[in-house]
Design a protein that fits this description.
By secondary structure, the chain is of the alpha+beta class. The protein is built from 2 helices and 3 strands, in the order βαββα. It has a single domain, classed as Alpha-Beta Plaits (2-Layer Sandwich), CATH 3.30.70. A 3-stranded antiparallel sheet has the order 1-3-2, covered by helices on one side. β2 and β3 form a beta hairpin.
């Protein structure tokens, strides 16, 4: 027999993201995008603060970033947008 025990944690408890509680996402969609190239460039530009993945059917890429504040994540996503999309 399996017993399931429920626990309630306080909302103030640090989550799974640790010191970087803000998560941001940027989707670049298009079937004519060079997804592999953009994904590699995005991963390099994000460094340790995020990563990128090619979406199914090669329809674009997803970029996810972590940060300590919403403004820092937003700034990173905007700079990624200008760096990657500005080439087209």
């Amino acid at each position: 027999m399996i017993t399931i025990v429920f626990r309630w944690n306080s909302p103030s408890v640090t989550g799974i993201f640790g010191a970087t509680p803000v998560l941001g996402s940027l989707y670049l969609l298009g079937d004519s995008l060079p997804s592999e190239v953009l994904c590699a460039q995005a991963a390099q530009l994000c460094g340790d603060n995020g990563g990128a993945a090619i979406l199914p059917n090669n329809c674009g890429i997803l970029i996810r970033t972590l940060g300590t504040s919403a403004s820092s994540v937003r700034s990173l996503l905007i700079s990624l947008w200008h760096s990657l999309v500005g080439k087209f």
